[in-house]
Design goal:
This protein is mainly β. Among the domains are: about 140 residues, no CATH class; about 70 residues, no CATH class; about 50 residues, no CATH class. Helix content is about 0%, strand content about 35%. The longest helix is centred in the first third of the chain and has 5 residues.
Length: about 725
């Protein structure tokens, strides 16, 4: 059996009174005390107790002290008077800000006496700087904030946290649903082993930030999840405000030291205005000089009760720090002052993270954000989450992601706080699901089976916000976007910007504010907009274009070797195909782009834009236009209505008699696995092999299944 060491970490802040007769004399007083816990595992059989405490020393002018100072530390069972149960001298070294850390019991092989912590009585810590005329400062209770110890236990143990059903205590062992812990702060102060699970009681709400303190290992992640029945446990970044006073008229105020980025009135995001005088309408608010002002016709504590007025205060709901091999599942994060689930990752080492089954909403910026330049994620799984109502991206993966699967998520109504002005880039360039690479810094990305809809600001503003799925500067042949359903986004369903060798196949993208699929070169380099594959997608009813490819009109070779095959793009308000600024193989600007075996709907006026501002109204004139295949019929297009079963009901599989049946090009493996009719997103999707049905491949995203005819006996 391994020896376990339990630490009680007591954070004391020392402030200093002046003594005129002692210039530069150190002085101290104790306040703002908090106790948290940590632990270690020495190598023999019994439990060792240590008390860790932190403080700050300043001189009478407020200047941070430096050097070495002695302290006399005593443990008592009374807040005043009585004899100490334990006395120990500490010599501490002050840093440049006067801060120090002490550790009672560290010099003894067995630590502090066991009986100090097993009597069940309160313990109080008194600290006295070893300076002339200084007495012991007011004692600090140890037991009132946290238990006297925590345990580091064997791999695979489950811990429970409950503040509403059983209503636990941080003095409990936390190892059963009948003896749960109480607070997220207590969880943050533990040290867990690989394979451990920390479960939060469903239906409870914690207004605290979860900061996992430990890493798992390969095959043994540390899991943060839920237990019980009912709604997912809520990790909220907001404070519920109740102590209101009337400023004047319908303006009410409350003290709020931390500036909120957002205020919610019974769950509805309020509107920030510039001054108290401008708070004149329902759900308006402003913050100035540590005071929040809101509009309410009566006391907000009574006018708003479901749940009330909430102010975002915590930067993150879950901050993963530098921890590795974590699983975050079946939690509800909401109303953070910045990000929901967040990790930029350390500059060295590798990371593996799993985020699954969560509800993630109302983050001021992004719901989920992982990765930054210099970090390295060897495995990321983000699946089965519902992400909505975030001001920025729903899901955002940055540079450093070397392998990720993003699947079966429902991502909707994000990008709500987009701004084109100011310097806050977290509210610019937004999508439901956004991947922001730097050429080769995101690889092996699979984005599949996601339902992505209605992302974008309430009023359409730009192509830079409201994209459903956005691949930005990813140069990787193993990045694929497939089997996704995208609609109602204010910009494009799929945006592939500065892409190189990425692929989009078997997606359905309809009724978006820009294009169904937009591929563009915006960085003016010849390595972007190169060898992108668009295969067997179904695109319908989009506002600006169906499928759009464009290079950089001022730079040579910015749209080359892109392949557009077996797609349906029909019924769009703008052209069903746009190829321009080199993507039409014009002169020096682009070459090798191929558009074959597609159905761009029945020919009509301006149904194809071929070169910027040049429109074609027949298949024959398009096929023989400069840069295209050259002869009538050479594109092998289906020149007709694709005949969906019911486009108005989003049933985009092919009806009997569709000209797109068996009309596609066999692209070989692995492109043969298509969607089957009748599936629902994101979790009831069925795929099938194109080679197993009919005499050829279908054009579009779905295999055609002929109706079953039952003959009478």
């Amino acid at each position: 059996m391994k020896k376990m060491t339990a630490f009680a970490a007591l954070f004391l802040v020392f402030l200093f009174r002046s003594h005129p007769a002692r210039p530069q004399q150190l002085d101290s007083s104790a306040s703002a005390n908090t106790i948290t816990l940590a632990s270690a595992q020495p190598a023999s059989g019994e439990v060792t107790y240590l008390v860790r405490f932190n403080g700050v020393l300043k001189d009478r002018t407020g200047k941070a002290a430096t050097g070495v100072v002695g302290l006399t530390c005593s443990l008592y069972e009374l807040p005043e008077g009585g004899s100490p149960l334990w006395v120990e001298s500490e010599t501490v070294k002050l840093d440049e800000q006067g801060r120090y850390t002490g550790l009672l019991g560290a010099t003894l092989p067995d630590g502090l006496p066991l009986d100090l912590f097993t009597t069940g009585k309160a313990l109080w810590l008194g600290v006295q700087p070893q300076l002339p005329a200084d007495g012991e400062e007011p004692r600090v209770p140890i037991e009132l904030v946290a238990p006297a110890r925590e345990q580091t236990v064997s791999s695979g143990r489950t811990y429970y946290v409950d503040n509403c059903v059983v209503a636990g205590s941080d003095r409990n062992n936390g190892t059963s649903a009948s003896t749960p812990w109480l607070t997220v702060a207590h969880v943050n102060a533990q040290r867990f082993n690989p394979g451990d699970s920390i479960l939060f009681q469903r239906t409870c709400t914690w207004r605290e930030q979860l900061t996992p303190p430990s890493s798992g290992t390969s095959g043994n992640p540390i899991t943060f999840g839920s237990y019980g029945t009912g709604a997912l446990p809520i990790i909220s970044g907001s404070a519920l405000l109740t102590s209101w006073t009337n400023k004047s008229g319908n303006v009410w105020q409350v003290s709020l030291p931390t500036k909120p980025n957002q205020i919610f009135f019974n769950g509805t995001r309020g509107t920030e205005v510039g001054s108290e005088a401008s708070v004149t309408s329902v759900n308006e608010w402003c913050w100035a000089s540590d005071v929040l002002y809101v509009h309410s016709s009566s006391n907000p504590a009574k006018a708003f009760t479901s749940p009330g007025i909430e102010a975002s205060q915590l930067s993150y709901n879950i901050q993963l720090g530098s921890q590795d091999y974590l699983t975050i599942q079946n939690l509800h994060t909401t109303e953070s002052n910045q990000f929901g689930i967040f990790q930029y990752g350390p500059a060295s080492g590798t990371l593996t993270q799993t985020i699954t089954g969560n509800t993630i909403d109302r983050a001021y910026y992004d719901g989920v954000v992982l990765g930054t330049a210099g970090s390295l994620y060897t495995s990321v799984e983000i699946g089965n989450n519902a992400v909505s109502e975030c001001g920025g991206d729903g899901i955002h993966l940055n540079a450093g992601i070397q392998s990720a699967t993003v699947e079966h998520n429902t991502v909707f109504s994000n990008n709500l706080l987009y701004t084109s002005s100011g310097t806050d880039t977290n509210l610019k360039f937004l999508a439901g699901i956004h991947f922001n690479g730097n050429g080769t810094n995101i690889t092996n990305l699979v984005v599949q089976y996601n339902l992505v809809y209605s992302n974008g600001p309430s009023v359409y503003k730009t192509i830079d916000a409201g994209n459903g799925i956005w691949l930005d500067t990813i140069h990787d042949p193993n990045t694929v976007v497939r089997y996704n359903l995208l609609y109602g986004n204010t910009a494009s369903g799929i945006m592939m910007e500065n892409a190189n060798r990425n692929q989009a196949l078997y997606n359905i993208s309809y009724s978006n504010g820009e294009a169904g699929i937009w591929v563009q070169n915006s960085d003016g380099t010849a390595t972007s907009n190169q060898a992108v594959g668009l295969y067997n997608n179904t695109v319908f009813g989009n506002s600006v274009a169906g499928i759009l490819l464009q290079g950089d009109y001022a730079v040579a070779s910015t749209c080359t070797r892109n392949l557009v095959k077996n797609n349906i793009s029909s019924g769009n308000t703008g052209p069903n195909l746009v190829a321009r600024y080199g993507c039409e193989n014009a002169a020096i600007y682009g070459s090798g782009n191929v558009y074959t075996y597609n159905d761009f709907g029945p020919q009509a006026a301006n149904f194809i834009e071929w070169a910027g501002g040049v429109y074609e109204s027949t298949y024959a004139t398009w096929e023989t236009a400069t840069g295209n295949c050259g002869t009538t019929g050479c594109s092998h297009s289906v020149e007709a209505d694709p005949q969906f079963v019911n486009a108005s009901s989003s049933q985009f599989w092919l009806a009997s008699g569709s000209p797109a049946i068996d009309a596609g090009l066999n692209l070989g493996s692995p492109y043969n696995i298509a969607l089957m009719p009748g599936g629902t997103w994101p979790n009831s999707i069925v795929t099938g092999d194109q080679n197993a049905y009919g005499s050829g491949w279908e054009i579009g995203a779905f295999v055609y299944l002929p109706p079953v005819v039952i003959s009478p006996p």
